[in-house]
Amino acid sequence: IIAQGLVSREDYEQLERYTYALFERGTQMAAEKGLILVDTKYEFGKKDGKIYLIDEIHTPDSSRYFYAEGYQERFERGEAQKQLSKEFVRQWLIEHGFQGKEGQTIPEMTEAYCDSVSERYIELFEGIVGKPFEKADLSNLAQRIEKNIMDYLR
User: Fold this and answer.
1) What is the pLDDT of residue 88?
2) Is the pLDDT of residue 29 over 90?
């Protein structure tokens, strides 16, 4: 990264400090929920000489979590870990012949599979946030979207 001139050594070292601090905090927060923060990604930008953290952090879209309970036993038996992430969707796509390569067609997800994805994401939310997920009323979705856009534009 430094050799390619993507960032200066000084910026790289600052990014490294930010990354370690964020990962440490994320690890602590996960442990409080009975989870292990396995890996994650952080995205940074720089504007007017200042480094900013951008995009989401420690979400299932940017991170993988394992359940702490049973982790060691599964590890010792060589079993896959029970995890909270979007990895299960990626695996489903691969199992159905899609890897995002040119010319591939995205497989159709049945309503039942979409419901199971929704249930898993609710589990992810509740596991990470530590609060019950409250489903929104979808009966007036178009009106809600329009209201939110108009409120934003005002």
Assistant:
1) 83
2) yes
Helices 111-129, 87-95: axis angle to 10 degrees equals 160
Structural tokens at position 69: 């309970």
Classified as helix, coil or strand, 1 is: coil
Distances (CA, A) of 53 to 10, 56, 118, 133: 17, 9, 28, 27
Q: Determine which helix (DSSP H) or strand (DSSP E) holds 118, and give its type and residue range.
A: helix 111-129
Work out the mean pLDDT of the chain and round it to a whole number: 92
Work out the number of other CB atoms within 10 angstroms of the CB of residue 93: 16
Query: How far separated are the first and last CA of the chain, in Å rounded?
Result: 43
Classify residue 27: in a domain, yes or no.
Answer: yes
Q: For the chain, how many structural domains are there in total?
A: 2
- For 145, the enclosing helix (H) or strand (E) is helix 141-153
Query: What are the pLDDT digits (tens) for 113-140?
Result: 999 888 888 988 888 888 999 988 888 9
Give just the sign of the alpha carbon dihedral 16, 20, 26, 27.
positive
Same domain, 74 and 22: yes
